[in-house]
Amino acid sequence: MKSKLTVWPILCVATALTLQAQNKVAVINVQAAIIGTKDGQKAAAELQAKAAPKQKDIEGKQNEINGLQDQLAKGQNTLSEATKNELYKNIEAKKKNLQRDVEDASAEMDQEQQKILQQLGQKILAVIERYSRDQGFTLVLDVSSPQSPIMYASPTIEITKEIVDLYDKTSTMSNPAPSKPSATPTNPPAAKPPATTTPGTPAGKPATPPPPPKKQ
User: Fold this and answer.
1) CA–CA distances in Å: residue 116 to residues 37, 74, 112
2) CA 74 – CA 55 distance, rounded (Å)
3) CA 95, 98, 100, 105: dihedral to nearest 10 degrees?
């Protein structure tokens, strides 16, 4: 009986190791993979350029509010109560408008980001599926979400970089660079002058000279 009790834990461990060897598991940070691709970096740069004018406008309005606040603070002992009340109301109104602009810009930015993630996410999902099949993975888990149930994952099973490299390689192959036009020769050969022909003579044949005049 004691020998059976001793062998049982060993069998359990062996079974667990066998199952682990049969099932290859990998983890990936999908958001990091999307941002790491060339398409993701290009989309992020375009989004930043699109948001730059709005950001500049918001900064200008904030500077205007800061200037009015400084004016109100410096004039506490010199400005009349009516002027100070007017400045205060103006500051509060501009703050509300600024807050609304910030919220609208943030909502628009989030919407654009979600659109990019959806577009690129579908493409990168196809790459993940292809890579997983080729490498024999039975399970791939996304660790980019804070709600991910994964408490720990070894760096040796993360495939984020491999997916980024494969995505960029596939994207480059599907969109080859346009071929360069052939160079025009700088000194083209001079055209040969056309052969002189007489009326009724086919083109390309030299004209037959007339016979010499007879002696009298």
Assistant:
1) 12, 48, 6
2) 29
3) -160
